[in-house]
């Protein structure tokens, strides 16, 4: 039986420092859980003199990745560098050298997951990545293990804490996006460059990973349609509330027959739904299956200790395998028979906010365009008038329609002489 398991750590930022701390401070606990002692053998860093939250002996640091990747004594490589390269190359190198890998890298797993899984199967090693989605909230392991006997029908998720915080503030305070973003940046909830978060890119990476696991399909980030929250205004929250909806940035993946549709965008969701009640920086993932109906995973989606918790859990799971105290989790096997459905085929209800001339016959003209595209109106609200411009704000809710039809209709409505501006279009999620 293996008595010691050696760890090579690539990167020692906030999470890497947390992992090193837990391995050191909870050594006895982890040894009891694994049946063998964890040994941190080497740490790759760019700057060995940089101050760190957790101090290690100087001889622990290396400046060459090969010192870890080609060390025959290293059992598990833990990649916490972030970014696509050189992280991807290091992961593949570790796998090719017969080493197990733990990573928190959502970008690499979203873009290259299928290739990494194939390489891991070839070398009979394991790549675990719980921390790549939802931080300390378990979802990867349940999809790989606990729900394996289920046919997953859909995933609906709030998986970006920054945007959820912003949307919560906008809803509660009737504030505009730019104002709340600045405050979120000041509080440290949003990056100085928030593009990946507010444009939906971060969530699209995470949804690609979840879709791949849930449907055993080769879903990459480029297969996920994404939109951000930058067009939302205080008016959208006011009107949606009046209509009985909350607005959330949802990541949604659905399987129909042998097709998967994956999308990230702002959505109107009925206030009675559990996801509508998830506020602040928290994450939630709702998984609907044939056997369990609907289950939800809820908790912190980021932060040093929650993410560290997920990384160390993966290390422990592989460690038990290496020590011979648990069977290896079978590597992910993907089907090439499941394809990605284009966004244009989505069927949904829609919320439309328009600024139009405040005069008789305007609604009839807009309704005519919608009808010409096979779209019917379910409800209509006319809001405050702008006397100076001679316009009024209109809110139109549609019955179910095809995405392609809505986009064509919006193009035509935008060209009507009675329409001054198309303020927003938001999909409704039931």
CATH architecture of the largest domain: 2-Layer Sandwich
* CATH class term of the largest domain: Alpha Beta
Strand content: 25-35%
Our count of domains comes out at 3
Instruction: Report the uncertain regions.
Output: none
- Please give the radius of gyration in angstroms: 24 Å
What's the CATH topology label of the largest domain?
Dihydrodipicolinate Reductase, domain 2
Fold and architecture overview:
The chain has 430 residues and is an alpha/beta fold. It has 3 domains: 4-136 and 304-322, Rossmann fold (3-Layer(aba) Sandwich); 140-299, Dihydrodipicolinate Reductase, domain 2; 343-429, ACT domain (Alpha-Beta Plaits, 2-Layer Sandwich). Helices cover 36% and strands 28% of the residues. Strands 7, 8, 9, 10, 11, 12, 13, 14, 15, 16, 17 and 18 form a 12-stranded mixed β-sheet that branches. It has a 6-stranded parallel β-sheet with strand order 3-2-1-4-5-6, sandwiched between helices. It is elongated. The model has no long low-confidence stretch (mean pLDDT 94).
Descriptive labels:
430 residues, alpha/beta, Rossmann fold, Dihydrodipicolinate Reductase, domain 2, Alpha-Beta Plaits, 3 domains, twelve-stranded mixed beta sheet, 14 helices
Describe what is shown at a glance.
This protein is α/β, with parallel strands linked by helices and 430 residues long.
Task: Walk me through the topology.
Layout: E1 4-10, H1 14-25, H2 27-34, E2 37-44, E3 61-62, H3 66-69, E4 76-79, H4 87-96, E5 100-103, H5 106-123, E6 127-128, H6 140-146, E7 152-158, H7 161-173, H8 177-187, H9 195-198, H10 201-215, E8 225-226, H11 234-242, E9 245-256, E10 259-270, E11 282-289, E12 293-300, H12 304-322, E13 339-340, E14 347-357, H13 362-372, E15 377-386, E16 391-398, E17 401-402, H14 403-414, E18 419-429
Parallel strand pairs: 1-2, 1-4, 2-3, 4-5, 5-6, 8-10, 10-13, 10-18
Antiparallel strand pairs: 7-9, 7-11, 9-10, 11-12, 14-16, 14-17, 14-18, 15-16
């Amino acid at each position: 039986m293996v008595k010691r398991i050696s760890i090579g750590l690539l990167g020692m930022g906030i999470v890497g420092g947390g992992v090193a701390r837990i391995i050191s401070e909870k050594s006895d606990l982890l040894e009891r859980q694994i049946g063998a002692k964890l040994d941190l053998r080497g740490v790759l860093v760019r700057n060995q003199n940089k101050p760190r939250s957790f101090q290690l002996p100087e001889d622990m640091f290396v400046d060459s990745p090969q010192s870890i990747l080609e060390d025959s004594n290293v059992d598990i490589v833990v990649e916490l560098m972030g970014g696509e390269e050189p992280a991807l190359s290091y992961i593949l190198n570790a796998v090719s050298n017969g080493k197990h890998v733990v990573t928190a890298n959502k970008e690499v797993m979203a873009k290259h997951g299928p290739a990494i899984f194939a390489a891991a199967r070839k070398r009979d090693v394991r790549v675990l990545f719980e921390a790549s989605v939802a931080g300390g909230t378990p979802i990867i392991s349940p999809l790989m293990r606990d729900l394996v006997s289920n046919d997953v029908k859909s995933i609906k998720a709030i998986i970006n804490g920054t945007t959820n915080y912003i949307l919560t503030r906008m809803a509660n305070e009737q504030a505009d996006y730019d104002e709340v973003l600045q405050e979120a940046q000041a509080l440290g909830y949003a990056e100085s460059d928030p593009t990946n978060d507010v444009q939906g890119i971060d969530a699209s990476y995470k949804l690609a990973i979840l879709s791949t696991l849930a449907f055993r399909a080769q879903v990459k980030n480029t297969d996920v349609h994404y939109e951000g929250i930058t067009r939302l205004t205080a008016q959208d929250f006011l009107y949606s509330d009046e209509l009985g909806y909350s607005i959330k940035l949802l990541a949604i993946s659905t399987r129909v027959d042998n097709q998967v549709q994956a999308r990230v965008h702002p959505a109107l969701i009925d206030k009675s739904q559990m996801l509508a009640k998830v506020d602040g920086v928290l994450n939630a993932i709702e998984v609907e299956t044939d056997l369990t109906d609907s289950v939800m995973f809820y908790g912190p989606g980021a932060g040093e200790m929650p993410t560290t918790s997920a990384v160390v859990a993966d290390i422990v799971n592989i460690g038990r395998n290496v020590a011979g105290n648990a069977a290896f989790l079978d590597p992910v096997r993907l089907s090439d028979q499941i394809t990605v459905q284009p966004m244009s085929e989505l069927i949904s209800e829609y919320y439309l906010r328009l600024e139009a001339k405040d005069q008789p016959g305007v609604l009839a003209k807009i309704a005519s365009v919608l009808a010409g595209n096979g779209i019917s109106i379910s409800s209509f609200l006319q809001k405050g008038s702008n006397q100076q411009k001679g316009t009024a704000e209109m809110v139109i809710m549609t019955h179910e329609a095809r995405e392609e039809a809505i986009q064509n209709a919006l193009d035509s409505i935008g060209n009507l002489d009675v329409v001054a501006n198309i303020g927003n279009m938001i999909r409704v999620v039931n």
